[in-house]
């Protein structure tokens, strides 16, 4: 188990895992040939390597017969229904057997030690999601038989940042190779050079197949993985060469329109405040608030719910007896107030979960003060102390802490609360520090 995002504490795996290399493909026979040839030269043991080419409905299925004697290789195909790289990757994973999944694009050629470096962390710590290093070059004149030699000639470039997108170089330097990812580290996880354990991939639920345009599916997957407790890491030794320039440097017609399509697809699913600057509300909120209806009247519930929602990207779920009746008595028409439990999709994407019981009333900045303490590099949970009174309780936890504890709880004798404290840390604050009070059970609402 890795505390918070401390991938620097991970040791070495005791065994050599079976690695599944999953390659989404669409009408790229020349580029795929370079990738497959490079995979035959990997330092990872060939008997612990399998390759799955996931064809996204190409006009002609890829011919891999030239490599079947040197690679354990399988081709799977889905119908051509547009750009479905996310679904193709899921299809490839479904046909694979490895405990570690290495995603490479069909135009991204791995250097000989790529897999050895890319799998180091996921093989030892299954919570890790690793992004490799991607350089760019024109490989249009490189033949499959000479691609390994071509990469060898460019080995002196590996120690520099030449041919590497500056925005990624800056991000990895700023975050110490994602050791300190912040909430926006997901933007630097590129699926063309991404590796994780099958255990993490399955728990996260794979790529979202609703993405049917270029771009965005890797940000959504990485963000969801982080919300579900993944450890982000950039492995600079896992270097691959992309055939052609970075998207930011390509001549793309209607570039703004393309990026807007991506942003519109991401905003409902990524709760990062940077993705939601328009002030609109989505079905999946940044903050999930679970309010117990026990001891509440409709009037006191109004005060509690209003304090949790005011001015925030939040939604309230009323939990407990008479929740439906109390909501009817409130008389509101507000889609942010719901009854029952949040669904799995919401809990896998929100950043925070707040649990409230009692007739508590939050001030305008109470939840902001609490959530600021719960996150990467801070802690996993904050509990509000009401001078020991059992009449009320407020607990704020990060989704990533809750999910990682859930994954590991069955593998340890430590209780969930102690496990959370060990992995992320837990704090207690006095209610006066965050402006929360216990209100009356029957407050006066008249004006």
UniProtKB/TrEMBL annotation:
UniProt cross-references to SUPFAM superfamilies, sorted A to Z: Nucleotide-diphospho-sugar transferases
Keyword flag Transferase: yes
Gene3D superfamilies from the UniProt entry: Spore Coat Polysaccharide Biosynthesis Protein SpsA, Chain A
A single GO molecular function term of this UniProt record: transferase activity
Sequence ranges assigned to domain Galactosyltransferase C-terminal in this UniProt record: 186-227
Keywords assigned by UniProt, alphabetized: Transferase
Start and end residues of each Glycosyltransferase 2-like domain: 20-139
Any Pfam family matching the protein: Glyco_transf_7C
The keyword Transferase is annotated on this UniProt entry: yes
InterPro entries reported for this sequence: Galactosyl_T_C, Glyco_trans_2-like, Glycosyltransf_2, Nucleotide-diphossugar_trans
Name under which the protein is recorded: Putative glycosyltransferase
Source organism of this protein record: Gordonia namibiensis NBRC 108229
